[in-house]
Write a structure and sequence with these properties.
Rossmann fold; 43% helix; 13% strand; globular; alpha/beta; 3 domains; six-stranded mixed sheet; four-stranded parallel sheet
């Protein structure tokens, strides 16, 4: 797509951070994180929305619409505002207020629906009856988001390759629901290989709470089928019972796999990233590290491999989830001795030595 009017907020060029402490602990000295929380709306969805909304403007769209539990909706709302277009977002009643606030703050008309299926149906009618432009999927079974937008994720592969001296990592781990990011990043690597800019493409790993892609690979299915969701996931923005063909294709073509996650594992990874590396990300983002920790524990990764986890969004998108592993904030008056007691009892810090 060629345009003289790109819709941009300065997305991309995010840092590739060497996770030295975590890497040492996990026996993976070449472990890196692509920190996508540095994007304008603190999520890698900005790459998709910059491309999709640019295409919307080029094709004369009058209204932008999306179904989203948060990050994709907030990004769509921001880029629609940048383009001067109205935006209608269909979300879920169960989505945290923080996410609803983010979507509304950019001027979007946000409507909460009881189920994913009901929001997709309303969105579909808006598209078919009124010509609204979609940045996400809206059909059953899910097929992924706007293909123009998915192209935007290729730039993650381009940036990682450049940061690694025009070499590809051995493994790239991406949190996955409908696999837009997983597939877009994989497509970027295949294009780099075709152009001769890297010698090989990495193995792609999908980090997924309920495991529809893992299930499809284990069963040898041609396409993913819905799986059971035993309980709501703390990684709610990627907690889908449905996988997509594009995600399965990326895993099969790369020789990769899917990793099922638990809430305990996700929160452990979130805590480790914040306390050991200074990276505070939301649970759905920490899912990528959760998958690495599980694979490392069962010997599924090699110490000589270069591994990149894609941290898709910042922790302030869902701060309530972190309260489950944080202590209450204690109080202290003007007495230093009592302060030292508070620090020792609440945080285990002996700072008077």
């Amino acid at each position: 797509m060629r345009t003289t009017r790109p819709v941009s907020l300065g997305e991309g060029a995010t840092p590739l951070v060497h996770l030295e402490r975590l890497g040492r602990r996990l026996g993976l000295p070449r472990l890196y994180a692509k920190d996508e929380s540095q994007n304008p709306t603190w999520s890698y969805k900005d790459r998709l929305c910059a491309t999709a909304v640019t295409h919307a403007v080029e094709t004369g769209a009058r209204v932008i619409t999306i179904s989203s539990t948060g990050n994709h909706g907030a990004s769509t709302a921001a880029y629609a505002a940048r383009a001067g277009l109205p935006c209608v977002i269909f979300t879920l009643v169960s989505v945290p207020d923080t996410m609803k606030t983010l979507m509304q703050a950019y001027g979007a008309a946000v409507v909460a629906c009881p189920t994913s299926e009901s929001r997709w149906e309303l969105m579909r009618q808006g598209i078919e009856r009124f010509g609204w432009y979609p940045t996400s999927g809206f059909v059953m079974p899910p097929v992924g988001s706007n293909p123009w937008g998915v192209e935007g994720y290729k730039t993650i592969a381009y940036e990682v390759a450049e940061d690694l001296g025009w070499t590809a990592p051995d493994v790239v781990v991406v949190p996955s629901a409908y696999s837009d990011g997983l597939y877009g990043i994989w497509k970027g690597w295949t294009e780099l290989q075709t152009l001769g800019l890297v010698k090989h493409a990495p193995r792609m790993i999908a980090a997924e709470p309920f495991g529809p892609l893992a299930h499809a690979l284990e069963r040898g299915l041609q396409a993913p089928e819905p799986v059971e969701a035993p309980a709501p996931s703390v990684a709610f923005s990627i907690a889908s019972r449905y996988g997509t063909w594009q995600g399965l294709a990326a895993l099969r073509e790369s020789g990769g796999g899917g990793v099922r996650l638990t809430d305990e594992g996700v929160l452990e990874a979130q805590r480790a990233l914040a306390r050991e590396e200074g990276l505070y990300v939301e649970p759905s983002s920490a899912a990528a590290l959760t998958a690495v920790m599980q694979l490392a524990a069962r010997g599924g990764l090699d110490a000589e491999q270069t591994i990149v986890v894609v941290l898709t969004s910042g922790g302030l998108k869902d701060p309530g989830a972190s309260r489950t592993w944080l202590p209450p904030v204690p109080t202290a008056d003007g007495d230093v001795d009592r302060l030292l007691t508070v620090l020792r009892e609440s945080y285990g810090l002996a700072l008077d030595r």
